[in-house]
């Protein structure tokens, strides 16, 4: 028996210790083997991870570029909208100003219209007071004296004209005033061709007996004279003579008399 055998017998644990130690001594070697396998299997994963990172970076970069472009567009639109809003605000305040101006001029016009309406009703009253109505016409008998042309001018300035007598009834209506007045009848343009001031020829005539006689070859205007016979009242006399006159208007409004 040698010393080693003695030692094995004396402390059998030592043997097992030595086996244990050997086992321990072998362990690092076995770990290195398994690590080598791990490195070999981790490489593709790392490559994949790298690729993923690159892909992610590319996606992030792309998104960032897109985002920046969109932000730029939005910013431009925001600026445009702001400019448009300012323009609209300006236009709105201009319109508000104009509306106020129009409102005030409308008020002025309304006041003027009301004043004119009052004036008009005054005129109507005056007109009805001073002008006599017969049928569909209004008549005014002037006592002042003027030539035939001046008398006619006076009527025309009032929106009327010298009277035109179209019927026996109208003749009778005028006769009632029994005044020496011009009527709107003349043959100044063509001797013997008697025409009313509206250029119409005589439809019915109420001349005095023996008239018209164109005395002295100078009687071209007709006057309504104060005779006893209602239906024989007209005479021709020189147009330059002065007489009263009768204006006739078919319009309801005639300018205020002086
Ligand atoms: C007389 C007549 C009329 C004439 C007048 C003129 O009355 O001769 O025919 O028109 O005078 O004033
Ligand atoms: Ca005459």
UniProtKB/TrEMBL annotation:
Any GO molecular function: carbohydrate binding
Top-rank lineage group of the source organism: Eukaryota
TM segment ranges: 45-65
InterPro entries, per database record: C-type_lectin-like, C-type_lectin-like/link_sf, C-type_lectin/snaclec_domain, C-type_lectin_CS, CD209-like_CTLD, CTDL_fold
Recorded coiled-coil stretches: 85-126
Pfam families assigned: Lectin_C (PF00059)
Gene3D superfamilies: 1.20.5.400, Mannose-Binding Protein A, subunit A
UniProt KW keywords: Coiled coil, Disulfide bond, Lectin, Membrane, Transmembrane, Transmembrane helix
Domain C-type lectin intervals: 134-248
Protein name: C-type lectin domain-containing protein
Organism of derivation: Pygocentrus nattereri
Source species taxonomy: Eukaryota, Metazoa, Chordata, Craniata, Vertebrata
